[in-house]
Amino acid sequence: MSHRKIVITGGPSTGKTSVIDSLTELGYVCFPEISRQVTLEARKLGIEQLFLEDPILFSEKLLEGRIKQYIEAEKHSNHLVFLDRGIPDVIAYMDYIGDSYPAHFSKACQQNSYDTVFLLPPWQAIYTSDSERYESFEQAIAIHDHLENTYRRFGYNLVEVPTGTVEDRVSFIIKHL
């Protein structure tokens, strides 16, 4: 059975989690974003912001988790599987902060491809920050640009999801599958 792996991506506070939660409520199989989990685990070890203190270690943990999600999506019994961020997101964030990364990051992007990538644009009206999301809105725009460029570099045609209610955004995504 062929599985379609669908990524929902975008900069911080663009509504990704709300869209994923809504898709889950509609009965779709969705894999959550893992960066908050990695951040919270690091805090238990006394590291306040692992991404800022050790970007490579943080990114290695994200890469490992996203590859694991990709493999789980391949094995899943459902035909459609949605993922809150994909493997290229790791590279986009590393490029955003200007850090270099090992070649296996790019190799992972080349070896694990997604069927469709939906990009949620920066949207100031819903933008918020919290203890895990430290970026300003201007930084969120820059991250968005890095995400878009990174996915395009790996050959993806992105589908930009218009702003609107969660229901409208989910409807748009389902219609464009």
From TrEMBL:
Domain of life: Bacteria
Entries under SUPFAM superfamilies matching the protein: P-loop containing nucleoside triphosphate hydrolases
Residue stretches making up the NadR/Ttd14 AAA domain: 5-169
Family matches, as Pfam families: AAA_28
Name of this protein: NadR/Ttd14 AAA domain-containing protein
Organism: Imtechella halotolerans K1
Lineage, opening ranks: Bacteria, Pseudomonadati, Bacteroidota, Flavobacteriia, Flavobacteriales
